[in-house]
Amino acid sequence: MTAVDNKPPRLELRQLRYVAMVAECGSITRAAARLGIAQPSLSEALSRLEQDLDTALLVRGKHGVILTEAGATLAETGRQVLDTIDTALEQVQKLGHQSRREIAVGLPMTLTGLMAVPLADSIAHEHPDIRVQITEATTTVLLEQLASGALDLAVCYGGADFDAFAAQPIFEEELFLVAASDNWSESPVIDGLAQKAIAFDRLADLPLVLPAKQNPMRLMLDRLAKAHKCELKPLLELDSLLSLVTFASRASAHIVLSHAAVVKEVANGTLVLVPFREPAPTHTAYLLRRRDRPVSSASLLVERMILSVLAEMIARYRLKARLLKPAGD
Questions:
Q1: What is the pLDDT of residues 232-261, one digit of tens each?
Q2: Where is the HTH lysR-type domain (predicted)?
Q3: Of the chain's two ends, which shows fewer C-beta atoms within 10 Å, N or C?
């Protein structure tokens, strides 16, 4: 150590292990055998350490070695450090291989029907040691439960305040005007999709049932309406997906939703998707977790399963949606 640099040199764990083993064996030769290295290599490493520390650690003799006071202090401290590290590694491995792990996941109402069963089935099949609990709720409720710790993960649509959470955008989906199949005759319909797109400002002239004003999708629709210089005047405001779909199915009004939210109704011919002219409105879903909570191995596995199931559903039902790559990919 030079006079210019008064900081102690950095030690490697193997150096601590060398000194501790020599202290235990009382001999460099026996210590080298226990460590599985050549005696000259160990002797050289100890000499280099003494040079780096500018301190004698060992007194070498014909019948072995004796530690100096400094060497004994380093050996004892080294044992404590190594024991602490070994304990930490055991705990980490234990956490990574728990026999039973429970993860609570929140899904928005527009995705539950599409994802809940495939997600639960996939986790049960591929990771039977993980027990998953799935909650369906509005974005506001999901964020409250995530903040309280009742949920470990939640999928929510953008537009809400995510500042308290780690938020990863995972997919983007197109929004459509949704109408009863017998309540839309402006253009031919093929496989549930109207072949002629409409302008967004047409919504101002159509009977609509929309989510309540605080709903993230409604906030987005109102912003789009302002940008298109029109005003949305719904007949009714509802935050129930089932009620929205019921109104549309009965031809009582039109609604605005993604394909994923009404995939079954479109498949059976009850509802029709009417696209908007480009640029078509879209909204983005995020995978959220709390920033201040450790991420368990089980949670990471469930995150991967969510993305896998999403990709499978998009392909299976040919959804107008796309997965988003994580930042940095």
A1: 999 999 988 999 999 999 988 999 999 999
A2: 11-68
A3: C
Rounded CA-CA distance 28/25 in Å is 8
Residue 177 burial (CB count, 10 A) = 23
Tokens matching residue 82: 């190594």
Percent helix, strand, coil in the chain (nearest 5)? Answer: 45, 25, 30
Task: With CA atoms as reference, report the closest residue to 114 among 324, 318, 283.
Answer: 318
What is the rounded CA–CA span in Å between residue 279 and residue 261? 21
pTM over 0.85: no
Q: How many CB atoms lie within 10 A of CB 4?
A: 5
Provide the percentage of residues in the chain whose pLDDT is more than 90: 57
Tens digit of each residue's pLDDT (9 = 90 or more) over 115-146 = 999 999 999 999 898 999 999 998 889 999 99
210 pLDDT above the threshold of 50: yes
How many CB atoms lie under 10 A from the CB of residue 183?
16
Which residue blocks in 55-130 are alpha helix, DSSP H? 69-96, 109-126
Question: Domains of the chain (ranges plus CATH)?
Answer: 13-96 (1.10.10.10), 101-171+284-323 (3.40.190.10), 174-282 (3.40.190.290)
Task: Cite the DSSP H helix spans in 235-296.
Answer: 241-249, 263-267
Q: What angle do CA 162, 164, 168 make, to 5 degrees?
A: 50
- What is the DSSP secondary structure assignment for residue 280, as one 8-state letter? P
d(CA 11, CA 169): 42
**CA 141 to chain centroid:** 19
pLDDT digits (tens, 9 = 90+) for 263-277: 999 999 999 999 999
Using DSSP bridges, classify how beta strands 321-323 and 193-194 pair: parallel, antiparallel or unpaired: unpaired
